[in-house]
Write a structure and sequence with these properties.
Layout: H1 11-19, E1 26-31, E2 44-45, E3 55-56, E4 60-63, E5 77-79, E6 83-85, E7 97-100, E8 104-107, E9 110-116, E10 126-127, E11 138-140, H2 151-156, E12 161-166, E13 168-173, E14 178-179, E15 190-191, H3 194-202, E16 208-211, H4 219-232, E17 235-239, H5 250-257, E18 259-263, E19 267-268, E20 274-278, E21 281-286, H6 290-307, E22 317-322, E23 326-327, E24 333-343, E25 346-351, H7 359-364, E26 367-371, E27 377-378, E28 383-388, H8 392-396, E29 398-403, H9 407-417, E30 422-427, H10 430-438, E31 444-448, E32 460-465, E33 468-473, H11 479-490
Parallel strand pairs: 13-16, 13-17, 14-15, 17-21, 19-24, 22-25, 29-30, 29-31
Antiparallel strand pairs: 1-12, 2-11, 3-10, 4-6, 4-7, 5-9, 8-9, 18-20, 20-21, 22-28, 23-27, 24-25, 24-26, 26-28, 31-33, 32-33
Helix pairs in contact: 1-6, 3-6, 4-5, 9-11
Organism: Methanocorpusculum parvum
Domain MoaB/Mog: 170-307
InterPro entries: MoaB/Mog-like_dom_sf (IPR036425), MoaB/Mog_dom (IPR001453), MoeA-like (IPR038987), MoeA_C_domain_IV (IPR005111), MoeA_C_domain_IV_sf (IPR036688), MoeA_linker/N (IPR005110), MoeA_linker/N_sf (IPR036135)
Length: 491
């Protein structure tokens, strides 16, 4: 009998199920500096007042305010009862104000007498006890995230360690074909890299991550690994084994140990994704294809963490003009990787490979375009919202090249990076690249040197670069494009 997914639900329904999962959160004591980015499990209170006694807020002289009442420009007053203070010094008893040093003069350089020409009120330029915070006053409540600029203040109030909420995520890689990074894979072998990527992503949320050793495609071994992880961790992610092949055991193991809530998602990539509960802990089954795994992390795991109060990378969207028509299978939510740049005052994007196993598409991309369920696709020239994967200002310094690949483009990218210019490459046939250029969807087109570029028209020019012709407009108004072409001429 052919195995099928248990079900295939919409992304919206999957997110609803994930977000309704009750939080399983522990806590631990952490050194203050190490706690940056974590969430407080207990409220913290000042151990003493700051300041504890009256202190000077300015460099000057501590005085008795009533002795300055008559001082003015027309009526200078000489004082003999004062105490020289610097900012932060304790104001001694008997004084109730500070007069700034620039408002005083010594009498005949006599340090025992000063002349003032303005009066001060009681409390002037004095920090009273507890002005910043009083002993026992709340610093931050439980649930607050510790930010870098909180650290100094918290330390000033007598706190050296704090109790923070702790989420531990266990990641189990599965597959008999897996080998460790650093080893060149033989035919049929795959470098186990998904869990490295997953840990790097998840640590942005301030969670702890345990990466378990790879488990071969054996039901008993996978079951044992899941039992151990669900006992130790708050969330478990099982990498690979989520499809419907003869060695995909994740779904059945989750069902045996707990409850499988869904298997099969109307989303691309990551259609085989699954989610269940084992030992009251949420368990995600993540496809083995890298880009599919990234989709589950970015969309589902992030939703769970955010619903529990953890925040990760900012999700910022920008409007982009699509350079090419893009179609969807229909009946799914689809997420595609694009390379984008600012061209002529607007953001323009060209598509990258839509294969889930092509990891270089993830490296070459800087935005993600979502085609929602019920939308059949977008037309070239249509403006859509895209999720940024890099800071928006980087798109200002990006030069977008569409076309065929040549090693000379790698050398160009290295030289440009040294000058703060980011090269983004979008694979396309020579003809397709030239069409993108004509539509203003890229800065440059790279085509094979023997290809005919004349149909672009008189306003375009081609320059030989490596084994390529790099085509651009004759009238270049973008200085960074001019610089890229100058650097290309040096290679």
């Amino acid at each position: 009998m052919v195995k099928r997914y248990l079900d295939e639900i919409s992304l919206k329904d999957a997110v609803d199920i994930v977000r309704k999962t009750p939080a399983v959160v522990g806590s631990r004591e952490m050194n203050l500096l190490d706690a940056c980015g974590h969430i407080l499990a207990q409220s913290i209170y000042a151990k003493y007042s700051v300041p504890e006694v009256p202190t000077a807020a300015m460099d000057g002289f501590a005085v008795l305010a009533k002795e300055t009442e008559s001082a003015s420009d027309q009526n200078p007053v000489t004082l003999t009862n004062f105490d020289r203070v610097n900012t932060g010094n304790v104001v001694k008893k008997g004084f109730d104000a500070v007069i700034k040093i620039e408002d005083t003069w010594f009498v005949d350089d006599d340090p025992k007498e000063i002349v003032i020409r303005k009066n001060v009120n009681p409390g002037s330029y004095i920090r009273p006890p507890g002005e910043d915070i009083r002993k026992g006053q709340l610093i931050l409540p439980a649930g607050a995230k510790i930010l870098p600029f909180n650290i100094g203040a918290i330390a000033s109030y007598g706190i050296t360690s704090i109790k923070v909420k702790r989420i531990c995520i266990g990641i189990i890689p599965t597959g008999s074909e897996l080998i460790t990074p650093g080893t060149q894979p033989a035919p049929g072998q795959v470098v186990e890299s998904n869990t490295l990527m997953a840990e790097a992503y998840l640590r942005q949320f301030g969670v702890d991550v345990i990466r378990y050793p790879p488990v071969t495609d054996n039901r008993v071994l996978i079951r044992g690994a899941l039992e151990k992880a669900a006992d130790t961790c708050d969330i478990v992610i099982i990498s690979a084994g989520s499809s419907a092949g003869t060695k995909d055991f994740t779904a059945s193991v989750i069902s045996e140990l707990g409850k499988l809530l869904f298997h099969g998602l109307a989303m691309k990539p990551a259609r085989p994704a699954m989610f269940g509960i084992v030992n009251k802990k949420p368990v995600f089954g993540v496809p083995g294809y890298p880009l599919a795994a990234q989709s589950v992390l970015r969309i589902l795991v992030a939703e769970l963490l955010e619903s529990w109060g953890w925040t990760g990378p900012e999700k910022k969207t920008i409007p982009v003009v699509l350079g090419s028509t893009v179609a969807s299978e229909g009946g799914i939510d689809e997420f595609s990787l694009y390379a984008a740049a600012k061209i002529g005052g607007r953001y323009t994007a060209i598509p990258l490979s839509r294969g889930s196993s092509v990891q270089m598409a993830g490296i070459r991309s800087n935005i993600i375009v979502h085609i929602p369920l019920g939308v059949e696709g977008y037309e070239a020239g249509e403006t859509v919202d895209a999720v940024l994967q890099v800071p928006e200002e980087e798109l200002e310094q990006t030069v977008l090249i569409a076309g065929v690949y040549d090693p000379a483009l790698d050398r160009l990218a290295e030289k440009c990076m040294l000058e703060g210019i980011k090269i983004r490459l979008g694979p396309a046939s020579g003809v397709a690249a030239l069409m993108l250029l004509r539509k203003g969807a890229c800065h440059l087109a790279s085509v094979a040197a023997e290809d005919d570029c004349t149909f672009c028209g008189d306003e375009y020019t081609a320059k030989t670069f490596g084994q390529l012709n790099v085509v651009t407009k004759k009238e270049i108004t973008d200085k960074k494009v001019e610089r890229v072409l100058a650097l290309a001429a040096e290679i």
